[in-house]
User: What shape does this take?
Amino acid sequence: MKQSGACSTVNGLNSIKLNNWLRNIIVGLGLFVILFFVAGIFYAVMQPKPNDWSPSLSRISKEPYGTKLFHAQLRNLFPSAKVKSFNKTDFEVHKEVLELLDSNEENEMDNGYYPQQYFTDDEANFNLLGVSDFIYSNEYDSKLLLLHISNGNTAYISCAGISRNFQKKLGFKIGYLYPNESVDREPVQYVANFTDEFLSIPDSINTLGYFDTLPSNAQVLGTFSNGKIFKVKFEIGEGELILNLHPFVFGNHFLLNQNPKIAEHEMLSLPDKDIYYFTQLNISHYDTKSPTLLKFIHSKESLTWAFYILVVGLSIFLLLQIKRVEQSTPIISSKNNTSLNFVKLLSDLIYTRRDHKIVVKYKMEYLLHSFNKKHRININNIDNKLAEQLAGLSSIPEEKVKKLFILYHAILAQHEPNNNMFIEYSQIMQLFK
Assistant: This one.
């Protein structure tokens, strides 16, 4: 026996050592994974970010062909004017004018005649500047823009392409060249006041836009080296619309490394008044390329890393919380004194003390409870009425049941125990089994 106990003790100690060894291995692997993850993040942060040479022309992008630098310099180019992002509420007065026009006046607008008598609000006195990779517009947006220009304002739009709806509205058509086949990448001549300057075409550009057909009222301001037109001016009412299909002169790379004077000259050629810039012509809706929360976060590398580290941290926290936290269930100890020996002892004790009242009371309660559970009868009053019900529900004669109730009340009322009454009570009670 002693040898067996010693063996079990040794086995228990070995099991504890094994569990501790496994726990140390798991903790070590977990720490290694965490350190590896942190080292990977640190290494990625320290690596130089590769430049994105795609011509996004986004006004919040610091990439080579983003326009963040150009938009940041607008206030320096127009120090005495208000420079702000265009909002669709800036054209509320134009929308009201369109609602006032009758069908004849709308037809005149389609033919190039724009009403002037409705404009009395100074809020419509500002220039528009749009630089984007592609300008989208619907018919309603085009009417609002042309109506604004006709009130003596200037709109300068530089984009690589523009929607066909707007092309049809002004009577021009845009074609596309493939730089590798049609235009040399080095000598793209800018003939509008910069005959000695050249523009470089980004390698990521697959096509170049040019004006394939133009109306008679369009004035040519710039051509490629092969003579294709990329910049024109339209007289719209009392204002001007300038379209430039070579927006890459406003990119960050061009301004820093090539020739910033072209963008500066283009802006200084505009009338000196408030200028509102936009990236889309869908004036009837909010600017689809305006900075959103995610765009703002991705505009700075530090914010980007902080955001994704926060997301990863929250994800790990939530995964760890998936495991249900359970409270320890208390051990319910079994009731003592439930053995047959205890029952026999308790019976002997009651019999020795001749405490018949307890036994009589418990037997009656058990009997009435069983009838109430089965037949749903009223057992509050132990009287002759209840005796009649029990006799009717059982095979016991009514006289026996009444006798049982009489003995019940008599035993509970007596001061000294009576064995004969108790025996007779027990015999009648046995009939219900």
In short: DSSP finds 17 helices and eleven strands in the chain. The first strand starts at residue 83 and ends at 85. The longest helix spans residues 2-46.
